Amino acid sequence: MVIVMGQEATGDDLASIVAVVQAAGVEAFVSRGVRRTIVGLVGDVAQLDEASLRGMPGVRDVMRVSTPYKLVSRENHPERSTVHVGGVPIGPGTVTLIAGPCAVETPQQTLEAARMAMVAGATLLRGGAFKPRTSPYAFQGLGEQGLRILADVREETGLPIVTEVVDAQDVELVASYADMLQVGTRNAQNFALLQAVGAAGKPVMLKRGMNATIEEWLMAAEYVAQRGNLDIVLCERGVRTFETATRNTLDISAVPVAQRLSHLPVIVDPSHSGGRRDLVLPLTRAAIGVGADGVIIDVHPHPEQALCDGPQALVDGDLGELAQVMRDFPPLLGKSAAAAMVV
Predict the structure, then answer these.
(1) Name one Pfam family in it (predicted).
(2) CA 11/CA 16 separation, integer angstroms
(3) Contact (Cβ atoms closer than 8 angstroms) between residue 130 and residue 193
C-alpha cells in the first residue's frame, strides 16, 4: 500500500500519517520527489482503515500496488516522471545527452572532453572519479582529486556533474561534489550502497546490472526510492550474453518494457554496451528511436591515451554527426533535445 500526499501537504500532515501508520504496527517509508511525496507501507496493512487514511489532511490518494516495486511502479504513479539534475530535465518530453570522459585523468583532459560534449549538444557532464574495474591492476580513478577536477570544470562550463559512487562510505563525499550520483552495473545489487544513495538527497542514475532481469533492476531502484528518493533515472547499458562480437548486448527492448512498468525515466548507454566507437552512433539512433529519455556517451580528446575505455570514446570527428542525431531524431518522436549550454 502507498499513500500519495498532495502538494499542499505540510510537514505536520506527513508526521500525522506516519504516526497513525506506525501505531498500527506498520512501517512507513517516506519518499520525496520534485513534485510529490509518497509514503510506502510495509507490514500488515490490513490493520489500516483506507477510508480514514484518505480523509486525513494532506492525503491525495491511498492505493494498493500489486507489484513488488511499489514506489517506482506505474501502478503507483501512472504518469511518467521527469527528473531534474542541476536544472536539466530527464524525462518523457526530452532526449537528454549526457557526455564526457569515462574517467577523469587530468584537468586539461576533462575540460577538453566537456567542451567536446557541449559541441555535440550535451547538457550534463559524465566523468568517473571512482572506477570499479574488473582487474585490481587497472586504473581505479583519482578519487577526491577527480571530484575536484569535475567541480572546476562545472564552474568553467556550467555543465552539472554525473559521477559514480562505488562504496557506501563515500556517498557523502561524492554527493558534496556531484549533481547526480551514478550507481554502476557492478553495484546494481549492492543494497547497502543503494540505500545510502537513496538517503543522500541527490538524483540517482541506476545502471542495470550486467546479469539483472528487468524486475531485479526495478527492485534495485525500489531500494533507492524506499530510502526517500524518487529522483531516479534508469540506465540500460547492455547485459552479458553468449555474444562476443560486442562488449555487452544492448537490450533495446528494455527501454519500452521498463517505461511500461515504471514511471522512472529510462536512458541508454551506447558506449558501454557496444564497446566500440563505430557502434556508438548506430546504437544512439536505436535508443532514441525506441523512445529512450536520454543517452550517456563517452568522449575523449585523445582516446589512444585514455586510461579507461578509449576504444569506445567518440572523438572530434564524431561530434558533428552526434549533434545531428540529437537535432533530427527526437522531433520524430514528438520530443525535443536540450540545447547545448553557452559559456
Answers:
(1) DAHP_synth_1
(2) 9
(3) no
Sheet-wide strand order for 2-5: 27-32, 37-42, 2-5, 59-63
Q: Which of 45-49, 140-144, 241-245, 324-328 has the lowest mean pLDDT?
A: 45-49
Amino acid 313: pLDDT: 94
**What DSSP assignment string belongs to 20-36?**
HHHHTT-EEEEEE-SS-
**Three-state DSSP state, 124:** strand
Confidence of residue 6 (pLDDT cuts 50, 70, 90): confident
The size of the chain, in residues, is 343
Distance of CA 320 to the CA centre of its chain: 26
What pTM did the predictor assign? 0.89
Number of other CB atoms surrounding residue 4 within 10 Å: 16
Distance CA 233, CA 221 (A): 9
Neighbours of 268 (CB within 10 A): 29
Query: pLDDT digit string (tens) for 245-290?
Result: 999 999 999 999 999 999 999 999 999 999 999 999 999 999 999 9
AA identity, residue 196: A
**8-state DSSP, 168:** G
Grid cell 528494455 is found at 254
CB burial readout 186-209, b (16+ within 10 A) else e: ebbbbeebbbbbbebebbbbbbbb
Joined grid coordinates for residue 133? 574495474
> Residue 45 carries which DSSP code?
G
Give, rounded to a whole angstrom, the gap between the first and last alpha carbons of the chain: 47
Coil vs helix vs strand at 291: coil
Q: Name the region of 87 (left: φ>0; alpha: ψ -120 to 50; beta: rest).
A: left
The stretch 323-335 carries a mean pLDDT of 94
Phi and psi angles of residue 67, each rounded to the nearest 5 degrees, phi first: -75, 150
Cα-to-chain-centroid distance, residue 336: 19
Cα 99 off chain centre by: 14
159, 342 contact by CB (below 8 A): no
